[in-house]
Amino acid sequence: MSAAPRKVLLWTMALVAASTPRFATALDSNNSNICNLSSISTYQLDSFNGNVSQSFLQTKTSTRGFTQCENATLISYDQEFNSLFAPNASLNLIYADPSGDPIADEMGIWLWDRNQVWMASASENNVSHVSILDLSNNTVKPLPVPNGIEVLNPNGGGYHNGKVYIAGDGNYTVPPCIYEVDPVTYQTEVVINSYFGLRFGGPNDVTWASRGGKSWLFFTDDPLSEVYNNGQIPQVPDATWRWDPLENTLLPVIDRTDILVPNGIRVNKNSTKLYVTDTPDPLVYGAAAVQTASGQSIYAATSSSAIYSFDLDESGFPSSRRLFGIAERGIADGLHVDDAGRVWTGEQDGIVVRSPSGKVLGMVNALAIEGEDVVNSGTSPLQNFALAGDLLVVLAFNKIYTVQLSSQIVSDMT
Ligand SMILES: *[C@@H]1O[C@H](CO)[C@@H](O)[C@H](O)[C@H]1NC(C)=O
Ligand SMILES: *[C@@H]1O[C@H](CO)[C@@H](O)[C@H](O)[C@H]1NC(C)=O
Ligand SMILES: *[C@@H]1O[C@H](CO)[C@@H](O)[C@H](O)[C@H]1NC(C)=O
Ligand SMILES: *[C@@H]1O[C@H](CO)[C@@H](O)[C@H](O)[C@H]1NC(C)=O
Ligand SMILES: *[C@@H]1O[C@H](CO)[C@@H](O)[C@H](O)[C@H]1NC(C)=O
Ligand SMILES: *[C@@H]1O[C@H](CO)[C@@H](O)[C@H](O)[C@H]1NC(C)=O
Ligand SMILES: *[C@@H]1O[C@H](CO)[C@@H](O)[C@H](O)[C@H]1NC(C)=O
Ligand SMILES: *[C@@H]1O[C@H](CO)[C@@H](O)[C@H](O)[C@H]1NC(C)=O
Ligand SMILES: *[C@@H]1O[C@H](CO)[C@@H](O)[C@H](O)[C@H]1NC(C)=O
Asked: Where would one find the signal peptide in this protein (predicted)?
């Protein structure tokens, strides 16, 4: 991922008068930044030509009214999506890092009782660190290191019981691990760093589930340490793990034959569902077929770009895997579940919102956030975000935007 300065283009939809019976597209009377598309257009278009190098919104089609949504901030496929946003809500730039550093690339944890969002930069060696956004004055500061334990190469994280848990990818000498950070004193501890003396490949994301008075930490693990941090080659196979801090037990709970490269992970509000994203080689955008430089098509059978749901039982074990969604393009990286069970994911086309059954309701359009050049560059600067009560906080690499929601959609979860 490059740290080159990025051009940011903000688009306001021009007024549009086109109309057709099936695909009518027009501005929402309450929000001139929302472009409505029929959900039918997600699976049926008149003469069309789209490919995975482009946003769905850039698909060339003779369906009238479709292309006018290209640069809109918010794309709706369902009225429920429109109702999530405050009148005329749009992208509000609240912070731009003066040095252009990718401070806002990973994580996205809302500390609901501290009015903060914690984020991480690119989880890459020498670049990655944790930053804290204070939503009361939109200031950003680096996570202090008071006791000599530095959070090394952080990626995802979660907030539970007044403590922040962070996936750290380590480096050659420091094993990948899970950190526990006190957000008041910033005292940091390593709580998990090995499985019977073997290193993890590189924890990616962390979430807590609570049922019947018990709580478990789930984390995903894949070879991020080796890939981004000059770390050691993986010894433990990719897996999703569950830590029970009362029973002092760490168990593998999802095998790599169920999820090959587990990445984003979250539970719903009452911890009856667990959602995990599966992320293949990031160069294989949502497809199983890739074209080589010579133009030859090869079949990359391991790629999937999928979101899976599991049932969580009262003992906190996942079962009943269901394919919940496939990213429109790129991978589904950051994942959050709102109190109504809607699943929000950071994908290459934007921040996509799905209903509890998986219907794509709409998205915050990546083209409106970063501009076409950057979105198509393959670096995917928009991959994580936070749901902070009645605010969507968009982590856009070296910039942070907020979008005002119509009501509080998450209470005390992250
Ligand atoms: C995808 O579409 C764009 C725009 O039409 C085009 O420039 C590009 O060559 C296409 N890529 C492939 C692999 O067809
Ligand atoms: C969207 O923005 C791009 C980049 O400037 C421009 O080429 C395109 O015409 C715009 N699309 C619409 C529908 O306005
Ligand atoms: C777009 O959707 C909103 C919310 O459902 C609605 O108020 C508005 O009339 C819609 N516009 C069109 C043209 O369908
Ligand atoms: C538009 O805003 C009004 C007033 O806030 C609200 O009553 C109405 O439901 C909104 N319409 C839509 C389609 O969201
Ligand atoms: C939204 O913005 C449009 C265009 O600026 C304006 O006409 C309309 O009154 C605004 N609506 C609300 C609910 O603020
Ligand atoms: C980044 O860290 C590696 C060691 O992991 C070191 O070899 C390299 O020189 C560092 N690069 C910079 C730009 O500091
Ligand atoms: C921002 O607000 C926080 C919390 O109220 C405060 O601790 C911090 O000093 C403020 N920062 C600035 C630069 O005002
Ligand atoms: C790993 O990170 C630690 C802490 O920053 C540093 O002291 C050590 O030199 C790094 N190891 C390598 C091989 O870069
Ligand atoms: C969890 O929440 C869902 C949806 O709100 C509800 O249908 C279900 O009964 C709840 N289950 C438990 C065990 O609380």
From this structure: 1-26
Pick from 276, 300, 301: nearest CA to 222: 276
Please give the single-letter amino acid code of residue 352: V
Q: Which atom of ligand 2 is nearest to the CA of 68?
A: 13
Closest CA to 351 of 52, 91, 14, 62: 91
The series of mean pLDDT values per 10 residues for the chain, 414 residues long, is 29 32 51 93 95 88 91 95 96 91 91 97 80 98 94 96 97 97 98 97 96 96 88 90 98 92 95 93 47 61 79 97 92 94 94 98 90 44 90 93 96 73
Cβ neighbours, 10 Å, residue 181: 23
Query: Has this prediction a pTM greater than 0.85?
Result: yes
Token pair for 126: 């020498």
117 backbone dihedrals φ, ψ, rounded to 5° = -120, 125
Distance CA 320, CA 304 (A): 18
- CB-based contact 276:265 (threshold 8 Å): yes
Burial of 411 (0-12, 13-18, 19+ CB in 10 A): exposed
> Which among 345, 385, 351 has a CA at the least distance from the CA of 365?
351
Ligand 4 pocket, 30 CB below 6 A? yes
Any ligand 6 atom below 6 A from CB of 232: no
Domains and CATH numbers, the chain: 93-348+378-404 (2.120.10.30)
If one residue of 88, 404, 406 were mutated to test the ligand 5 pocket, choosing by the most ligand atoms within 8 A of its CB, it would be 88
Q: How far apart are CA 329 and CA 174, in angstroms?
A: 34
Question: Ligand 1: distance of its center to the CA of 7 in Å?
Answer: 22
Other CB atoms within a 10 A radius of the CB of residue 248 amount to 7
C-alpha span between 19 and 1 (Å, rounded) = 41
Ligand 3 near 19 CB (within 6 A): no
Q: 57 φ, ψ to 5°?
A: -70, -15
Ligand of minimum distance to the alpha carbon of 32: 5
Q: CA–CA separation, 93 vs 374, rounded Å? A: 17
